[in-house]
Amino acid sequence: MNAPLIALSRRLRNTPFTSRIERFGVQAYTVYNHMLLPSRFRGLEEDYWHLRNAVQIWDVACERQVQLKGPDAARLAQLLTVRDISGFDVGRGGLVPVCDHDGHLINDPVVFRVADDCYWFSISDSDVALWAGGLALGMGLDVEVSEPDVNPLAVQGRHSDDVLAKVFGDSIRETKFFRFATHTFKGHPLRVARSGWSAQGGFEIFVDDWEIGAQLYDAICEAGAPYDIGPGCPNLIERIEAGLMTYGTDITREHTPLEGGMEKYCSLDSSIDAIGLDALRAQRASGVTRKIIGVMATGDRVPAQRDPWPIRNGDRVVGSITSITWSPRLECNVGLGMVETSSTPIGTTLTLDAPDGTRTATVCAVPFEGASQR
Amino acid sequence: MNAPLIALSRRLRNTPFTSRIERFGVQAYTVYNHMLLPSRFRGLEEDYWHLRNAVQIWDVACERQVQLKGPDAARLAQLLTVRDISGFDVGRGGLVPVCDHDGHLINDPVVFRVADDCYWFSISDSDVALWAGGLALGMGLDVEVSEPDVNPLAVQGRHSDDVLAKVFGDSIRETKFFRFATHTFKGHPLRVARSGWSAQGGFEIFVDDWEIGAQLYDAICEAGAPYDIGPGCPNLIERIEAGLMTYGTDITREHTPLEGGMEKYCSLDSSIDAIGLDALRAQRASGVTRKIIGVMATGDRVPAQRDPWPIRNGDRVVGSITSITWSPRLECNVGLGMVETSSTPIGTTLTLDAPDGTRTATVCAVPFEGASQR
Asked: Is the pTM of this model over 0.90?
């Protein structure tokens, strides 16, 4: 079969930057939160090397913000996540597992406190606004849940500080990880956070005006020209090397954050009032039976993957590999998957049933060695 | 720019029928409820004529079922929609607007009562399970909200009865519109409803077993061979001619069902306890200021559309056209859009600002004349 096209329509929403990235010749899209997310420009490996060696501008408008605003915003924000966020002051963000009553993951957003009575959940691919809105209405909370017209634009890569300093001034360099500050562009205030979906470092700019956004895109490209800036997007190779899981791929509604390796974001011993916390405590008590792992797999380049591939310990299937790719830098195949806890110790030798044959897969620490910025 | 590809991944879920439709050479996909929905096989117009003149098999697994089950299922189902569904007995379905507290549309599903204590909301493209689950948890209702592994397979077109009679027996012909009955295939019970997203008539089969689903797909193709059955999907031309709106395109979270032409599905004068009903009553009292319309637009074939096109009454922009296509049968452009109520009377002459120039657009009754089965 020829590779299928994506049927573009209004329902798959454009972003303020779509005209720019199409001018750059985006090769492929995926869909994320009912919005277009570019997924390839010059090719997976070319995009990977460019991200590592230069700097990229990413249209990640699909990272929608779910805004909680009002007297009960702090209470609802805490109910939504099993991580104790009572200490988050304005400007601070962090990864927060959002679970249902059974401890299963609904989303794994980054939350920012943007005002005393206002939070932004920067979401992965599920309609958190409906979950939060249903809860608020059902509980009679005094909080407004909305999806404001905020479209993140990311700059990722080792030269990110230099590029954005030319746009916003040198104070941008002082931004701490998962913190935002307000900077101005053409007189328009914009929240800029040190964050983003790569291990190469960089920023996310929360663009709340389409015309300003398009101008900002062009200004960043101009400022980045000496650093060979170009369009990019979350990159399969880079994110697997960095051990960055994708909700919907590596972790799903079937999994808990304890299975997904997010123990440190679960405040199991706190006294917060959070949905799913009791279920996670019970899971800890009875034992977590499967966990996410990284593997290096032998053999030549694996084929492109669409479905999980079964992985065995001896003859017994113990789980599956959900993301895998050839790493041109490590010169082996690297993958993420979920297996029975007994098969998770580093160094365990497993057998991966790939569509093109059997491979030996060894459990590795993630991030994969040398995956962070060189 | 070349047409962009869709980046296939596990997050954009396959269906039990994906292997079949890829064998048939699907040309393009869209994404709907985090799942692949085919959108073109042989070309928009060829697919249209085939749907009208022969019969098609559609992979509409993306029409996910949100299941409410338990003692409070009926109460929650009624809370979720402004249509009085107290009279729905087991086996009956119907279109039900799902609104938020302000009367804005969250979804426009078809609900089926599948048991006394169980409902299936067959949803359009938003995570209704999160809305319903949040409400149930917030209100402390005794009901389980889930998305069972049920994957609808549709047969649409004038020969649908003949084809399915060969698979399930002649009793299938007795199925009434928006009713389901249970039929068996290879000993496996399957719910089959007379419903579907075209005006050509047909059925939707709720497949709850992947292997049975693949076998059923093949059996339907075999039974349909004398009728020139082939793969298909909801067709832009056919659905505009029929006046079938798409949630996310023609109606969105910004609109109420009264604006979306769904008055007859809003039980404004009932005494049901339903979210959003008070807001809709208030809107009726103060007057609905914009409404959906159908238009016929002059000139040659319109270009493919991705964004709403503004439409004017004289010099004043009164709304936008959200779906438009060339109808090869009516030999003119047909579209759907939302305009100020004062511009909605049939015969009103408006001016459409299409990207390739200005066209005269006349408000028409929908379905467009002759749109239903000839």
From this structure: yes
